[in-house]
Amino acid sequence: MKPRRRLQRWLTGVAFLLPNIAGFCAFTLVPLVMSFAMAFTNWDILRHNLFRHDPLRFVGLANFARLFADTEFWRDLGNTLFFLLGLPFAIAGSLIAALLLTRVAKGRAASGPLLAVATIVLVASAAVLVVGGFSRNGVLGLFGLMAGAVLVAGLLSGGTAYRTLFYLPHFTAGVATFVLWKKLYNPHTGPFNTALAPVLDGVSAMVRAAPAFFTYGLPALCGCAAVAIVLWQENRLRRRWEDGEAGTAAIAAGAVTLALPLACFLRWQGWSLALALGAAAAAAGLLFGVTVRRPRPWGRARSIDAGLSSELSLALVGVPLLLAITGGMLAGPALPAMAVAGFEPPNWLGEYAWAKPALMIMALWAAIGSNSMILYLAGLSNIPPELYEAADMDGASAMQRFWHITWPQLAPVTFFIAVMGVINGLQGGFEMARTMTLGGPAGATTTLSYFIFSQGFETGRLGYASAIAWVLFGLVFVFSLVNFRFGNRDVND
To answer: Which residue segments constitute the domains of the chain, with CATH numbers given?
Structure first.
């Protein structure tokens, strides 16, 4: 090809790409470079503007040093990480929704255990409403109409209506949804507190009638549940170690998963942070040593980090469960004294202790039918049916098929969803906090993204806000590297 012809084709291609390149440079590349430069300066809108001409100074790492000494930064980082505790429940809900939709799409009836769980949930919900003061006819009518409408629509559409209902919250506008939930959380006129008030009265009477159970029985039950989970995890890790399915890093991750709730428990009991972490590290080391005490009879793992993605995915479910058990152990003895005055519906967005859970409940409602469910649907459709046929021939139960076929095959999808959820969680939280709580009460819902906004556009400290943004970028970059390293593992790792 002649040079002139080659140049002409190259210019033509550049002309078509120019709008996209110009937009990228104007709205991404240039702001990125400016933000990086601003992070090392004392740029302040109040001092560096058209009306004041204070010299802009290079301050080196002073903004970062100030950042790590700022108590508000650590508080907001803690808030951001606390909101991530809702991620496991969102993942579990998305997986359950995908399993249900897959069965409906294949025209199969729900299995016995699934029907049993659904029946228990519906009956328990109806019983709570009846005990709380709702009329029985109203409860039957509400649940009957709701279940009948959804069932008929789903059957007539071949499952499409179910998919639409699950995915519908993902289409709603964010700010409009936040305003609606703010109305629902209203402590005086909101439907949540209106429904909770009679229910909490019944619970208060039940606690007053049996104070010994909540003082001694509930902590004992939670302790037994924690011991059972630890023994199950130790046995599972030991089997994976002996079979060569898990490397040393995976076993260590599984051990640390069980030690984290112990550190939280000891910290809440008044132990210093160093002592709590030391005790948790000792417990994790003991569990690790007990697990790997035997040699591998079936060969060595392929690498030190083999099976790590599966362990991290399982940890997303195990850690919140153990934290909930720990909360039951701590809250049980205090319930009888609280029940004397009666339980009151919470001021969801106005109390420090309830503001974060309120936003997490709203986020869970929106996350169950989001893109995570779509990814699980795609992952379920790619599982070879021969695996299930072989399991049926061997007489495997539904739980065995899920645990030994479905879950391992979905491990890469779960790991990808988890990593992307963490990344989105680190970056998110601004819109809901800005709309519903303005970061309050007392900074309970201020996330890192909201902190960046307040420092950059409310106080005008653009240099300091840029430093915070680049620290946030570092956190996101680390999790992105983890995804690149482990996200493409095959399903048998």
So the answer is: 44-107+179-187+346-493 (1.10.3720.10), 209-343 (no CATH)
